[in-house]
Amino acid sequence: MSNKVFNIIVPVISVILGLIAGAIIMLLSGHNPISGYAALWNGAFGDSYTIGETVRRITPLMLTGLAIAFAFRTGLFNIGAEGQVIVGWLAAVCVGLYIDAPMYIHLPLAIIAGALAGALWAFVPGILKAKLGVHEVIVTIMMNYIALYSVNEIIRTVLTDGETTSATIAPTASLASEWLQSITFYSRIHYGFLIALFAAVLMWFIIDRTSIGYELKSVGFNPHASKYAGMNVNRNIVLSLVISGSFAGLAGVMEGLGTYGNISVMGGFTNLGFDGIAVALLGANNPLGVVLAAILFGTLKEGAGEMPTSAGVPTELVDIIIALIILFVASGYIIRWAILRFKKEEK
Amino acid sequence: MKSKKLLLVAFILGLGLFLAACGGATEEEGNETNTEKNDETTSEAGNAADYKVAMVTDYGGVDDKSFNQSSWEGIQAWGEENGLEKGVNYDYAQSTEKADYMPNLTRFVRDEYNLILGIGFELKEDLQTAAEQYPDTNFALVDDIVDAPNAASITFREEQGSFLVGVAAAMKTNTNKVGFVGGMRSPLIDKFESGFVAGVKSVNPDIEVDVQYAESFADPAKGKLIAANMYDNGVDIIYHASGGTGNGVFNQAKDVKQNDPEREIFVIGVDRDQYDEGAIGNHNVTLTSMVKRVDVAVQDVINRGVNGEFPGGEQLVYGIEEDAITIASTNEEAMTEDIISAVEEWEAKILNGEVEAPATPDELETFLESL
Amino acid sequence: MEYVVEMLNIRKEFPGIVANDNITVQLKKGEIHALLGENGAGKSTLMNVLFGLYQPEKGEIRVNGKAVKITDPNVANDLGIGMVHQHFMLVEPFTVTQNIVLGKEPTNKFGKIDIARARKEIQELSDRYGLKVDPDAKISDISVGMQQRVEILKTLYRGADVLIFDEPTAVLTPQEITELMEIMRSLTKEGKSIILITHKLKEILETCHRCTVIRKGKGIGTVDVAETDANELASLMVGREVSFKTEKTKATPKQSILEINNLYVRDSRKVDLVKGLDLNVRAGEIVGIAGVDGNGQTELIEAITGLRKVREGKVMLNSKDITNHSPRKVTEAGVGHIPQDRHKHGLVLDYSIGENIVLQTYYKKPYSKAKVLNYKEIFQKAEKLIKEYDVRTPSVHTKARALSGGNQQKAIIGREVDRSPDLLIAVQPTRGLDVGAIEFIHKKLIEERDKGKAVLLVSFELDEIMNVSDRIAVMFDGKIVASRTPEETNEQELGLLMAGSKTEKAGDKE
């Protein structure tokens, strides 16, 4: 019981500490922290529009967080979520554009296409690690760049004729909901958050309830013992990255079928994949934790937009404050980890 | 394990309830704001003090030393002229990624700004959506076309200015090799590239133009790398149309100059007079800049709005004629009399219609064939 | 008599456990004092209290007669107490000298590290105590034994008068153990005092002056080593009579279970390490493979279990060819494997004991149905096994990492034996365990034999081979060079055979 209380108290205290540190910085630079945080709150939950936008922003972060957490749980570091997001986005939009079908076929097809594209993008580093022992971090980073630049070129040459944005997908492939938008004052909220929540449940189920997850975790913890016990270590490496990649691909689907309904040439990474690393770490690689961490992260990011306009806090300062809050939450885990480790040694 | 399941279910339920509750509250709120705004726009035309203007940057940020900054300078100048206060009558919102555009635009709508400017073609889709959703607010998009009765499109004839800096580059080059660094391939940057190449070739068709794209408007490291390769390959003048990426081009030029002050290499700036970026010791590597007076255009649109003549649905095109495209001659040492007179000669040809600067790769092709 | 260090009535509690309950240890100047106890008895906790890593709830520590409070290891260092840890704390790419001065770098008057001076001091220390350490060697290039000496030098360099050795022989070869004992004697001759944490009776009898016994956190007493023997020490430690000679009836071997013909196996550098090996293990017998480490034993076992490719030759189980089958197929064909390295190969330390129990069977009914795990069945099975095999763990949900070595090994043996394999392979099954656990494991191996299973035992300890095996196969240079029964041979002969010398007996290979 005490451990459960501990699990809740540590992150809460960390968030409070982060907020206090941010307040001190605002005070030192001559801004009013109360109006600053009021702006942050209003920016995230001030009215139904911002709530809708906050949910929209949380949705893909949950999925990239799950993607990275899944790989982490099996001992792999998938830095390639970024690239998997981009190819997932492209694949979903392509299906949305070029296939004509009723919604009950079209939408699932587009979603699956995005997940598969992400999976394929993660399969490459997986197979390279399994067969040749190439470290997945290096390959996934490279795959990010390949995804970014190839997708940009495909948008310009295949999807359009030299334009920077594709056409809008057919409504039968769209996750957007007029009803949701109407109750949130035209925010871009879409049904994707249900997919994200479902993905979290799915990850929990695979990791904690199935023999597949048992094997994946085992290989992550100790590949040698797993091999001795008769598991196919290489197959599990590939499988883990493929599942991770399909989660990341789904994050791209959220953007392609939900938020934007199209795909544009990107001037740089979406950062969804990289933020997903922080989300996974904050969430301690646990599905419920990832969901909560994505909510925290998305809220901070969305609310921060309001701080410069209504509280006069410069954007750069806002970034520092967000970073501090995350730092404190992360060090909360470090503290807890340290305490647990200490306890373990005592035994 | 059971408790985890329960938590999740509770969470989903909670979220659903929460959303439903918000949904109920919103419709009233939305209606209120809409009616309020209607009153305002109709009653208060003609008085700058009651007019609120805001701009949303693209991810270059407000201090990009390029068109975001220039737009903001235009708004600031308008504000100061009328003795207005930042944060009350005029403001900006900075976007760090694509996902920020929409909330930023909407925020200003909800804060009841009369005119909201989106800076950069990146904002095209989001501004279009916003304009359709909020027909009572006026919008303007810089650098691309929107189609809505309450939105104005502000575009520039960058190909004209690019043509003229091309002329200057052709006159200045010693190696007969010049370079062009673009941010991202797009119809907008095509105007810069086509105009520039046409200008260079009009003076001397034998000059080689090395065209490279950085695939980013915010990656100075990439800009520096491309510039380093170009200068190593004998290019002596680089024209950049790449926003923040161009800072890397300047850095590389200055590095080369520092190591070898005798070497004659230059950068041509874009959007603003980038003379200050080129200073290194007693030298300056900025030959000239293709100045795009976004501030002039922005102020023009604001004033029309204040006077109740907002050009909603119109496509405004600003060029040499409107004094919105000019060529900087701050670097007097580098921009010799010869060059200036040649530039003026071609400028006159463009103004009287004798020469039409090409704005797309296709037009460029036709133009080059006609030389 | 004056004591250099006294720990009086020390009590240390952890949530739910009393690790040390009223323990008193008094160390005389110039003596080697053993701290004897089973794994998990509380020896390491007690020494961590002395070294300042833990604070005791009760009791007093005196150094040279004065009461002191040791709040952290730096205080311990200042008081002249140094610790040689079981797991070395060395920086591999650094030289010996760099490692020793780390954290206490000597500087010249300009504040620059004076490595030459340090090197000279270290050389002197090394010569004085006969450590024979090369101050310029890189840690990654020297043997484990040498690394341990570097740890000893580290404490001496920091001015330690009292040295604590935490199970120092666990990682050493027999030769290195002898040398270490010599070093410890020369240290005490120079006036140093030593506390030796161990559970090996032989070491205590050979080198120590006195011995304090701890059992389940309680101090049992201190005895003069000269006035005791192994039996007394063992029963003090375990709390009951311990038999050193394993009791067993004569084997009644039946049909052949494992047959290996002309086997060639390469190591990871593509060199043949098993070179044309023949071996036969029958149902109802224990075959012990004796040999010096590195003569192909590891490769042989990995080849049988499918973990390493067989280059040439055949492995037959119950007359079926299992050559180059996958580990899972080999397991399913009826092979159990107790691996040499239980942390690396035997267990997933971050899994609970329950999860480790099904490491090979998780995918089968009843533990798993349509890929969905049935944790109820898994933990029920685990409950049953930990009772049967006397695995001492707070619960089946405890992580394997938290268990002592002996209990981890019992869990592995429980898991492997419970599957009732026709062939049970045990590699160094008692390494690092205390006498109680060793006795238990040997009994289990013999029980399996008596049930008519074939057992293949690989051990580098001749005692174990002689005690447990029904037949001894001596392995040298990738081949079985001789086969003996324990009755017809002795340790001298086996030692010679293991070193590659020939003795007279028909049927021996080259």
Automatic annotation (TrEMBL), chain A:
InterPro entries, alphabetized: ABC_transp_permease (IPR001851)
GO annotations of cellular component type: plasma membrane
GO MF term list: transmembrane transporter activity
Annotated membrane topology is: Multi-pass membrane protein
Tell whether Membrane is among the UniProt keywords: yes
Q: Per the UniProt record, which residue ranges are transmembrane?
A: 12-34, 79-99, 105-124, 189-207, 237-260, 272-297, 317-339
Q: Domain of life, per the record?
A: Bacteria
Q: Which UniProt keywords apply?
A: Cell membrane, Membrane, Transmembrane, Transmembrane helix
Instruction: Give the chief site where it resides.
Output: membrane
Subcellular localization is given as: Cell membrane
Q: Does the keyword Hydrolase apply?
A: no
Extract the CDD domains matched here: TM_PBP1_transp_TpRbsC_like
Q: Which PANTHER family match?
A: ABC TRANSPORTER, PERMEASE PROTEIN, GUANOSINE ABC TRANSPORTER PERMEASE PROTEIN NUPP
Q: What is this protein called?
A: ABC transporter permease
Report the source organism.
Oceanobacillus piezotolerans
From TrEMBL, chain B:
Q: Where in the cell is it found?
A: Cell membrane
The record's Gene Ontology cellular component field reads: plasma membrane
Could you list this entry's UniProt keywords, alphabetically sorted.
Cell membrane, Lipoprotein, Membrane, Signal
Q: How does it sit in the membrane?
A: Lipid-anchor
Coiled coil ranges (UniProt) are none
* Residue stretches spanning the membrane: none
The cross-references to InterPro entries, in alphabetical order and at most eight, read: BMP_lipoprotein, Peripla_BP_I, PnrA-like
Kindly give the CDD domains that the UniProt entry links to this protein: PBP1_PrnA-like
The UniProt entry, under Gene3D superfamilies, shows: 3.40.50.2300
Q: Region Disordered: what ranges?
A: 27-46
Q: Which residues form the ABC transporter substrate-binding protein PnrA-like domain?
A: 52-359
Q: Where is the signal peptide?
A: 1-20
Q: What is its main location?
A: membrane
Family stated for the protein in its record: Belongs to the BMP lipoprotein family.
State the protein's name. BMP family ABC transporter substrate-binding protein
Taxonomy-wise, where does this protein's organism fall, top ranks first? Bacteria, Bacillati, Bacillota, Bacilli, Bacillales
From TrEMBL, chain C:
**Protein's organism:** Oceanobacillus piezotolerans
The protein's UniProt keywords, in alphabetical order, are: ATP-binding, Cell membrane, Membrane, Nucleotide-binding, Repeat, Translocase, Transport
Show the Gene3D superfamilies listed in the entry. Answer: P-loop containing nucleotide triphosphate hydrolases
Domain ABC transporter, residue spans:
5-241, 258-502
Question: What cellular component terms from Gene Ontology apply here?
Answer: plasma membrane
Q: Which named protein is this?
A: ABC transporter ATP-binding protein
Mode of membrane association: Peripheral membrane protein
Q: Tell where it localizes.
A: Cell membrane
Entry's family note? Belongs to the ABC transporter superfamily.
Q: Name one GO molecular function term.
A: ATP binding
* Domain of life from the UniProt record: Bacteria
Q: Which Pfam families match?
A: ABC_tran (PF00005)
